[in-house]
Amino acid sequence: MTSRVFEELLTHMEWADALTWRRISETSGAPRDPRLLDLMYHLHTVQWVYLQVWRGEPLHVPARGEFAEAAALSAWARRYYDSLRSFSHELASLDLTRRISLPWADEVLKRLGSAKPATFGETILQVVFHGTYHRGQTATRIRELGGEPPLTDFIAWVWLGKPAPAWLEQ
User: Fold this and answer.
1) Where are the beta strands (DSSP E) in the chain?
2) What is the pTM of this model?
3) Quick one: DSSP state of residue 63?
4) Residue 12 in domain
């Protein structure tokens, strides 16, 4: 895959996350639902830690308790995308086949019995696929709360002309 494809996947991911946060805000009870907010916290935590690994930074993620309200959690997610955009400009100059050492590899080793190295590009795909998986879980929870989950499929984004993310105003 090329850096341009990865940039598109990451742009779609932001669009889908912004749409999901918008729907959470519109669904009665959703902005206060602990299960839904825990899912979104986990989704965004993974995004942040991978970005920190890509940048060679020490891992730091605020505790879940620092986000008592959905608006604070959504704002944290939005800041991730601001940071990601500045980093994504470097994608074209990066070796996407370069192996990356993940700080949590020992935990994976314990769980799976082995952990082969991943490439930079593979970790980008992991972040994108991980977000898709958890947005599916949030869609289920939004429906359980009586709302209609947003259509966040990649192809829907393409059909819509690849619109820019529409974050809620903070």
Assistant:
1) 99-100, 118-119
2) 0.93
3) -
4) yes
